[in-house]
Amino acid sequence: MKSLYIHIPFCNRICTYCDFTKVLIKNQPVDDYIDALIMEMKTLEHKDFKTVYVGGGTPTALSEAQLERLLKFISENFTVSGEYTFEANPDEVTTGKLDLLKNYGVNRVSLGVQSFNDDILKVLNRSHDFDDIFRSIDHLEKIGLSNYSMDLMYNLPGETFNDIDTSLRYVEELKPKHISWYSLIIEPHTVFYNEIKKGRLKIDDDNKEAEKYLHVMDGLQAIGYPQYEISNFAEKEYESEHNKTYWRNDNYYGVGAGAHGYINNERYYNVKPVPHYIKSMNENHSAVKETIELSETEKIEEEMFLGLRMTEGVSKERFRGKFNVGLDEYYKDELSFLKDKKWITDDGRHIALTDSGRMVGNEVFIAFLKSS
């Protein structure tokens, strides 16, 4: 086992686009949640991990005392041999919290920037502003936590190509080690979803979104950020090893309310509501889970969906090693069809998406479905 995901579902403010498992931290049983989280982590069979990722919600919404308690437990009970990441909001990155992260071995920070435009940040209901971004990065650099990823979004309400260009200029100036730049996806049960249904909010159509995506890809390439996944950009040594665990369809643990895991061909999903999760841990010493055992066909399909997100694509050698069948043999007709469409490339070792294939990713993925 090489990866562990830890979910902190608390935020100081709820963003208008977010559908992750999260609640406002005020008046929440945060200490009880950490008790339950520690209890769940104690049940894990493996104690040595290549990557640990603490996400949310917002882990930096925790107080310094709560943060230290979590960090101390991880330090005393697990070995993290590689990438150890904490998600953080720019306005919450205090010197005290950063010192704790550094002192307890965290070696990577994922900073939720989203936009450099204060007006757009207000529409997103982000808790930080432009100045917080630079202040937080200055703190990170000063204490030697310079391995940070910057999360950005495009296709945002009111966003122009000039806004993207402005973000690209700041990326070039700040030189983060890693960039995640995602398109806004309107999810049900979010503020944005309701605003669009009521006709009070508009976002660009698919064609304009595709233009912006190409603009982001070309812009990052031009300033030295190779694309290694559909929405992620970095030099080889700074690619997210934890996220590659997901894209390579490897096993990982997920702990916390609403966390997902994948162990022994079984995907599991912890109960989402924080009180239910705490109650489950206190009463049963385990989280209530929904589990889905994957068939061989479903495992193969996931191997393709996830692997094709990466620029390197799906390894034929790895495919045969996992499924005891050749990729060319298993998907002979599908590969022929997709090559004719010029949506995939085949270098003899990997199947990968072309640039045009990225634009129609869902159509490519549907071609690999055999279980439906």
Automatic annotation (TrEMBL):
Cross-referenced PROSITE patterns: RADICAL_SAM
Subcellular location: Cytoplasm
GO BP annotations, alphabetical order: porphyrin-containing compound biosynthetic process
GO terms, molecular function: 4 iron, 4 sulfur cluster binding; coproporphyrinogen oxidase activity; metal ion binding
Keyword 4Fe-4S: yes
Pfam family, one: Radical_SAM
Alphabetized SMART domains for the sequence: Elp3 (SM00729)
SUPFAM superfamilies: Radical SAM enzymes
GO CC terms of this entry: cytoplasm
InterPro entries listed in its UniProt record: Coproporphyrinogen-III_oxidase, Elp3/MiaA/NifB-like_rSAM, HemN_C, HemW-like, rSAM, rSAM_horseshoe, rSAM_sf
Superkingdom of this protein's organism: Bacteria
Keyword tags: 4Fe-4S, Chaperone, Cytoplasm, Heme, Iron, Iron-sulfur, Metal-binding, S-adenosyl-L-methionine
Domain Radical SAM core: 1-226
Family: Belongs to the anaerobic coproporphyrinogen-III oxidase family. HemW subfamily.
Functional description taken from the UniProt entry: Probably acts as a heme chaperone, transferring heme to an unknown acceptor. Binds one molecule of heme per monomer, possibly covalently. Binds 1 [4Fe-4S] cluster. The cluster is coordinated with 3 cysteines and an exchangeable S-adenosyl-L-methionine.
Name of this chain's protein: Heme chaperone HemW
Organismal lineage: Bacteria, Bacillati, Bacillota, Bacilli, Bacillales
